[in-house]
Amino acid sequence: MGTVFLGTEALARNEVTRGQLRWKYRRLYPDVYMPELAVPSLYANSVGAWLWSGRQATITGRAASAMHGAKWVDESSPIELLWRNDHPPDGIIARSDRFRDDEVALRDHLPVATPARTAYDLGRHLPRNDAVTHLDALSRATGLTASDVAPLLDRYRGARGIRRLTTAIDLMDGGGQSPKETELRLLLIDAGYPRPTTQIPVIDDAGYPFAYLDMGWEDVMIAVEYDGEQHRTSTKQWRWDVKRLRKVHDRGWLHIKVIAGDRHSDTLDRVARAWEARRNRS
């Protein structure tokens, strides 16, 4: 009996009693259990959802992206399945969308949508900013590109949510290293600025990169970076950041640091001042 199992199968094998199921195990979904002492996780929920489907469904969406190595997926995210069922339990989203065998791969012996199919589903069903955040993480983990998803756009031309997907895929950027960076990049794009480049190398006198800027515009040498909590809790990291920033400034870059709590309007004002400074210089 695995960590996550079907109660009816365990009872049939005399591995548990009905009393033990009630008192020693947590019910994830109808007839799906895991030990009460086991730590809940997105992976356990994914296994449970697949078992609940009678081992027939394919896992997609956020859970699939996590299984492909994408970060920043909430452990409490609903499990999205490619499977026909009109009444899934809480915590499971079942969709009867069409798919083909070449859109499914095995991960830990579970049928999981390929990265391209996962992106296809994320982009169609999530709000734009959420979709792009997950697509950035999936791209970073797998190397997925827009051209990898293009065949599915042709295959399912006219499917629901295609326009939303096209927008999200166009905005996908594997250079995003956190949801906050994605949020910041979309803020700049929505404000009308040229699409910023991500992970911009800054070269030292010897010709080697000593820094990679989160995002910015190389032609005008303006950088925008999100400063996460780890930069303020590690003394070693803080010292390096100070030295790094000095060297970035020495190379002629205007640098805008954004921290948690900064208002979007303040961030955009600072970016606007940097662009104005560049225009005045020229």
Describe this structure in words.
This protein is of the alpha+beta class. It folds into three domains: 1-39, no CATH class; 42-171, no CATH class; 179-281, Endonuclease, Chain A (3-Layer(aba) Sandwich), CATH 3.40.960. It has twelve helices and twelve strands. The protein has helices spanning 7-12, 18-24, 42-52, 61-67, 115-125, 128-142, 146-155, 162-171, 179-190, 230-233, 235-250, 264-281; strands at 5-6, 25-29, 32-35, 58-60, 79-82, 92-95, 104-107, 110-113, 197-203, 209-217, 222-227, 254-259. The chain has a four-stranded mixed beta sheet, with helices on both faces. The protein has a three-stranded antiparallel beta sheet with strand order 1-3-2. Strands 4-5-6 form a three-stranded mixed beta sheet. A hairpin with a 4-residue loop joins β10 (209-217) and β11. α5 crosses α7 (146-155), α5 (115-125) crosses α8 and α6 (128-142) packs across α8. The longest helix is centred in the C-terminal third of the chain and has 18 residues, at 264-281. The radius of gyration is 23 Å and the shape is elongated. The mean pLDDT is 95.
